[in-house]
Amino acid sequence: MIKVGDALPDVKLQEYSEVEGNGCSIGPNPVDVRQAAAGKTIAVFGLPGAFTPTCSAKHVPGYVEKFDQLRSAGIDEIWCISVNDAFVMGAWARDQKAGDKVRMLADGSAEFARATGLVLDLTARGMGVRSTRYSMLVRDGKVVTLNLEAPGKFEVSDADTLLAQARG
């Protein structure tokens, strides 16, 4: 499992873009995790699935709401990573009004979740392999803090916790 001091894995995520620009075409675009994290301070949070109750009611809204405070604490970008496809993550971004505040990154084949060891197997509940709920502060591609949730909990991966760590 990934731990403080480790580099983010060398995998690609997908991001849905509704407009062309900055070398991105409309639709899903690959995001090379290591390249995208290089030279930046990023608040990363992962969760079991788009449009699920806790994720939609608390997790994403907290980061959207705390965007300005996170930026003033030195965070360059906020990433939400979920084992969903880019189309679902794009629709969820619209639903959550994430706009340009939170990058909704799709880990459709669970490559990031597997590479970090942050896998949650919900096969018995009909949801397949997902990501556990977590947050991490990443500087220049390396994990500075890691907050792992116990199964079914939402206590340490919230925006307030990561904001306090960023201000640290």
Core attributes:
alpha+beta, 168 residues, seven-stranded mixed β-sheet, 9 strands, Glutathione-dependent peroxiredoxin
Write the layout of secondary structure elements.
Layout: E1 12-17, E2 27-32, H1 33-37, E3 41-47, H2 53-65, H3 67-72, E4 77-82, H4 86-96, E5 103-106, H5 111-116, E6 119-122, E7 128-131, E8 134-139, E9 142-148, H6 159-167
Parallel strand pairs: 3-4, 4-5
Antiparallel strand pairs: 1-2, 1-5, 3-8, 6-7, 8-9
Catalytic activity: a hydroperoxide + 2 glutathione = an alcohol + glutathione disulfide + H2O
EC number: 1.11.1.27
Family: Belongs to the peroxiredoxin family. Prx5 subfamily.
Protein architecture, described:
This protein is α+β, with helices and mostly antiparallel strands and 168 residues long. The protein has a single domain, classed as Glutaredoxin. Helix content is 30%, strand content 30%. The protein contains six helices and nine strands. The chain has helices at residues 33-37, 53-65, 67-72, 86-96, 111-116, 159-167, and strands at residues 12-17, 27-32, 41-47, 77-82, 103-106, 119-122, 128-131, 134-139, 142-148. The strands form two sheets. The protein has a seven-stranded mixed sheet. The protein has a two-stranded antiparallel sheet with strand order 6-7. The longest helix is centred in the middle third of the chain and has 13 residues, at 53-65. The two termini are 24 Å apart. The mean pLDDT is 94.
